Amino acid sequence: MNINFTLVNEFLSFLIFFIFSFVFLFPKIISIINCEDLINFKNKIFLNYNKTLENSFLKKIIVIEIEIKKNFESNINNINNIIIYKKNILFNSILLEKNLFLKKIKLIFNIINRNFIKIFSFKIKTNFLKSFKKIFNDFIDYNKEFIIL
User: Fold this and answer.
1) pLDDT per position in the chain (149 positions), as tens?
2) Angle at Cα 110 formed by Cα 105 and Cα 111, nearest 5°?
3) I want to staple 21 with a disulfide (CB 3.0 to 4.6 A). Which of 25, 43, 47, 88 is the partner?
4) Helix (H, G, I), strand (E, B) or coil at 3
5) 38 vs 50: CA distance, rounded Å
6) What highest taxon heads this organism's lineage (predicted)?
């Protein structure tokens, strides 16, 4: 049997060189050549990660601010509606109190007017009676004169 050892030798030498290069040589060469590039790459990745974190935080903060603004506006609108409602209730109660007060004043004036009318009518009656009495007395006196004479 004739085996060609040159091919086996070539294969084994390539395999040994590849393993040696892969384990010892290439990492040293790559670390020497690309040390700054690797650091820059890591820094870029870290910066991008930080930017994405910042962007996500900013987005969350903006969303929270928008929600707070909406809630604030809705709360302000609710407060305004409550204030308008309370103002209307107060205004209506003031109108009712004014109307009740006017009714009471009218009632008082009616009572006063009735009393005044009663007093006035009583005075008229008394004055009329006094005047009638006086006229009657004058008439009687006048008649007495004629009778006596």
Assistant:
1) 566 667 778 888 888 888 887 788 777 777 777 666 667 777 777 777 777 777 788 888 888 888 888 888 888 888 889 889 888 888 888 888 888 888 888 887 777 777 777 787 788 788 878 887 888 777 777 666 665 54
2) 95
3) 25
4) coil
5) 18
6) Bacteria
CA distance 146 to 149: 5
φ, ψ of residue 2 to 5 degrees: the values are -110, 110
Q: Which two tokens stand for residue 130?
A: 């006094």
- Write the single-letter amino acid at 44: K
Query: How far is CA 87 from its chain centroid?
Result: 16
In the chain, what are the domain boundaries? 33-111, 114-148
CA dihedral angle for residue 39, residue 44, residue 50, residue 52, rounded to 10 degrees: -150
